[in-house]
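Risk register update: the risk of archive-format incompatibility is retired. Evidence:
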Amino acid sequence: MIVIRGGTDKPVSSQKLADYFESRTDIDGYLYLGYPIIGTIEGGYQIDALLLSDRHGVIVFHLIEGAFNEKIELSDIQDENYTKLESKLKQHKDLTKGRNLAVQLNVATFASAWTNRSDIKSDYPVLVTENDLTDFLEAKNWEDNQNYQKLVSVIQSITTIRNRNKRGYVKKIDSKGAILKKLEESIANLDRGQSTAVIETVDGVQRIRGLAGSGKTIVLALKVAYLHTKNPSWRIAVTFNSRSLKNQFKHFITLFTFEHKNEEPDWDKIDIIHAWGSPSMRGIYYEICLKHNVNYLDFKSAESIAKSYGKGFDVACEKAYSEIESFQSYYDVVLVDEAQDFSPYFLRLCYEILKSPKRLVYAYDELQNISNKQMPSPEELFGSDSNNNACVSLHNDQGKPKQDIVLNVCYRNSKPILATAHALGFGIYRKNGGLIQMFDQHQLWLDVGYKVKEGKLEDGEQVVLTRDKRSSPDFLENHSPIDDLIIFKSFNNEAEQIAYLIAEIEKNIKEDELKLDDIMVIHPDPYTAKRAVGMIREQLFSKGINSNFAGITTSPDEFFRDDAVVFTQIYRAKGNEASMVYIINAHECFNHTDLAQKRNMLFTALTRSKAWVRVLGYGRNMRELQKEFEEVKSNHFELRFLYPTAAEREKLSIVNRDMTEAERKKLQRKSASLDDLIQSLTNGEIHKEDLSEEARAKLKALL
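Archived output:
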């Protein structure tokens, strides 16, 4: 039995009910406390506790704190509980049979502090002891329970979002459109980790970790709607790095709030707000600078101070944090998506602008950047107080809401796609040069759903890692042959690549019954993407196929449009997904310059696909990349490698690090003197591994 603890004003009876069901290992299902909240014409109506079980059906528990009170109208309360939930369930045709509900629904009052007041067989039953609970459950058996999974989906308020792409137009029984229709029905339910992450609320910091495709963004949107409904006076902010997530959040939060309250969210209380911001766009950092009268740095200014591309925001946040002596607290909750993209100082800024008890929820992908520079621990992220005690330390204690939640089931990528992304990202089967990067913490592999099939997950040991059916459900891959799920294709030149891409997209739309917004084309290089996709879009348009270039032909906050195939560079692709993903110019990810960064781009692109992926490129590098994929495939999409030692991992991080432009120029400067070179090596500005073998040999001879 899974117990999920939402906010409740009946803590004693809730805890006793939870203790009872946690002891019942023979019952499968969910016990929700303080959930669901049902949208009615009067607003949100909260159920005290709800049991979902394929054995007992639905049981609503009306909870009573304290001693017997004859003024409590049990019949009225139980009737209202019943009718409110029945009305919600009857809105779903799959849960009805004729005019009746096809789900066993019962209501009981649980009053653990009452004495000698049990009345189990009444039309309005009252349960006081654990024996009362047992006897009541034994009398409630749901025989015709084939609609159980649909019932769970409805209660979790996820049906609306998962089935947003209606596919009534599908005519063929075996087309890709028909396959997607079945897939979308199969993933309608939240799993245990997701349900916990949505409903359980911590008075403090909560961390949510998970793979791409494990549902972090949907979880955060559901959480905003749930907290907003329960606490309408709270000011809530949800922030992120990718601007294309803004419309996603607004759409999801609106849908889920309607589920809970039957009305629009109060947007005066909810801020869907970018992390950086500017005078023309709201942002967490920008508004902090305004409110605290510190100097705001725009992108150009911050980058010039950082002197390292991509580090400007980190520098800006650190500068603001150090300059503010006393913070104003104006949010009740802040939720941070894509936290792996931010420095500790941004998260500290979010923490400081929170009212007590500092409710901060930050979600991130352990493997999104697949860098050995993993997210710091909470103790490192939030620092220490004046007594040198950690400001934040996370624990999962029995009987309390979880502070640290791991989402280890991937509902987007099939095992072949996910394993390929990891294998190529880490360089597991790279022939020349070996591994590119690796985690210091072995446990991370297990946390995100890998299992040790052979060997040991330890430094210097041979290991084989695989994903099982729980962490990578079979239905995500069984719908199509492996050779259709993922294809690597090499061409002689760019023209051949474009011709193939145009023909395949045309086939997807005209024969495969895919919609235009089912298709995403990703270019890995943000600097050359605009030029590269222009010719392709022109040719598609000549064939009557509309397309958009995300953030260029659309607003920065918009990604998908129903009437267009979306083209995007890799950074805008983050946080989005599509059924058919084409990755073009993939040969650029085989370059030896900034290799870790290039492989991270490839990893991110591959994990945008929720059904099929096509990896296209041309030239020698693409042929080599294709060979690397064939090794992944021949190893049955398992990861077989020798785990590098700490010293070897340190060398990997040096050899394959992302060099700044200044570092690169320093290496390339032919006129650099020997003294300059020695000084740079001494200071750690460059490393001996950066030098060519010839340069190292010359230096050794000179010394």
